Amino acid sequence: MVQYQVKNKNRMCAVLREGIGLVSDIIIVGAGVVGCALARVLSRYHGSITVLEKAGDMAEGASKANSGIVHAGFDAHPGTLKARLNVEGAKMYPELCRELGVPYSQPGALVLGFSEEDRATLENLVRQGEANGVPGVRLVERDEILQMEPQTNPAVLCALYAPTSGLTSPYEMTFALADHAALNGVRFERDTQVQAVSATETGWKVETNRGEFTAKVLVNCAGVFSAKLHNMISDTRLNIIYRRGQYYLLDRMTPLPFTMTMFQCPTKMGKGVLVSPTVHGNTLLGPSAEDIPDDTDVSTTAEGLKFVLDKARLTWPNLSVRGSITNFSGIRAHEEKGDFVIGAVSGAKNAYETVGIESPGLSAAPAIAEMLGKQIAEEMGLTLKTDYQPAQPLPKPFYAMTTPERKAAVEQDSLYGRMVCRCETVTEAEIRAAIRRPVGARSIDGVKRRTRAGMGRCQGGFCSPRVAEILSEELGIPMTQVTKNGGNSYLLTGTILDALKEE
Q: Which residue, of 55, 353, 373, 493, has the greatest Cβ tally within 10 A?
């Protein structure tokens, strides 16, 4: 069982403030799954690395608001970066998740067809999958589909079967990548928004809301904002189309209708609405696909959610959303030419980028990091460390422990005996460990995504006050400084006693 050292409270407060004016060898802008994966790869080499993230935590953009699917790789056109890196990345996931202690399963996927037109689409996808090197992809007919997944709409005609399609937790993966990078010296500066970037004689100056950061090399992993950053430093122009996807999440008390991820035929807008289990036993419905003008608009709409339900019922006619516990949306960074843009920035010395990393970005992230990390290391002349530290795999969560394992955990640390989140069976020991991780939680949502405290039916209604108390204690800050999600998302303004005194 991994135990992280207790941080000195005064030291933690200092960590929240330090880092301004930092000089590094490499600055990575963006701490999504790609930015954190790249930071981890580069941490194998000698050199100082700083990751700048505008949000209060890693994985705040598309890396938290996606389907959690490790795609097999049949959807991308052969010869594209999407196709190659999707297949390479998917192959890396089982070992990577084992190494980091991140949940992963490989239940496979079906892409359903309900017409002869769909059959033609699926036959083409099978050919694409074979060309891309996807193992075991094939066309299956109605009888085999209903044998595999009995709750499928009996009107189904055929389906593409991809046995290597997998599932993971995208935000847990991102946090684990960041922790391993930090263990090997990478600095993460959160709540640090890039405002301007300019070339210097020795590299790059990055101006942020928290002051200036300088580095020899700049790497753009800014997700939906990546084209804006590209256009700050290059004479060539890139354009991101902001494509919002909305979801339903059903609680774990709802019986899982399918063992596999159930897709519908893709369109030019994306892979279509899926019905899928998650690695934690929930059922996920979505996403929609709508192009929007605002790169920050992650609202959900009645129209978008109705679209998801209507499409999901084509797969699962008996669908009921009585078990729905939340809706959410995320924005995909669709580059208008349709492929990933990865490598050196045209016309900008010592600058690299990952632009247009939409689906299958999560699947491709490990391969993107290896490819770009190798390029950067070679062109900078970096040498490998001899003291590179292996990952510290995350301990088994309390909810997944057997009774003897729980007993042993409580005997080792009595805080395992204090239940904070009853919906998801999360203990005080786990919450304190999440805050003490190398790049630990600083907010209530940060604790939620690292431990699942607040992800159950009550959505944090009962456990949030205690989580806030623990954050206050661990970070050495007053309760009024605890945030829901970083920035200015404060929950409390003071005490009732203080308010009465003011009257």
A: 353
pLDDT at residue 16, as a whole number: 37
The catalytic position among 46, 71, 77, 280 is 71
Q: Name every residue whose Cβ is closer than 8 Å to that of residue 406 and which is 6 or more positions away in sequence.
A: 398, 416
**Is 71 a catalytic site residue?**
yes
Torsion of CA 210, 214, 220, 225, to 10 degrees: 30
Spell out the residues 6+ positions from residue 80 whose beta carbon is closer than 8 angstroms to its own. Answer: 338, 339, 340
Rounded-to-integer distance, Cα 19 and Cα 120, Å: 56
Start-end of CATH 3.50.50.60 domains in the chain:
9-62+171-238+338-380
Q: Is the pLDDT of residue 12 over 60?
A: no
Confidence of residue 13 (pLDDT cuts 50, 70, 90): very low
- Predicted local confidence at residue 20, as pLDDT: 57
The pLDDT confidence band at residue 497, using thresholds 50, 70 and 90, is confident
- Which pair of structure tokens corresponds to residue 14? 């200092």
For CATH 1.10.10.1100, the residue range(s) in the chain are: 398-502
Instruction: Give the C-alpha separation, 37 to 392, whole Å.
Output: 16
Q: Assign a CATH topology to domain 103-167+240-335.
A: D-Amino Acid Oxidase; Chain A, domain 2 (3.30.9)
Partner residues linked to 162 by β-bridges: 109
C-alpha of 483 from chain center: 20
CATH for 398-502 is 1.10.10.1100
Given a cut of 80, whether residue 458 has pLDDT beyond it is yes
C-alpha distances in Å from residue 402, one per residue of 252, 284, 335, 407, 408: 19, 27, 46, 9, 10
Dmax of the chain from CA atoms? 74
| 449 or 500, which is more confident | 449
Q: Is 80 helix (H, G, I), strand (E, B) or coil?
A: coil
Structure tokens at 187: 């600095």
Q: What is the mean pLDDT of the chain?
A: 94
Instruction: Please give the torsion angle defined by the CA atoms of residues 52, 62, 174 and 78, in that order, rounded to the nearest 10 degrees.
Output: -110
Q: Are 61 and 32 in contact (CB under 8 A)?
A: yes
Q: Where in the chain is the domain with CATH 3.30.9.10?
A: 103-167+240-335
CATH topology of domain 9-62+171-238+338-380: FAD/NAD(P)-binding domain (3.50.50)
Least confident of 18-32, 62-76, 469-483: 18-32
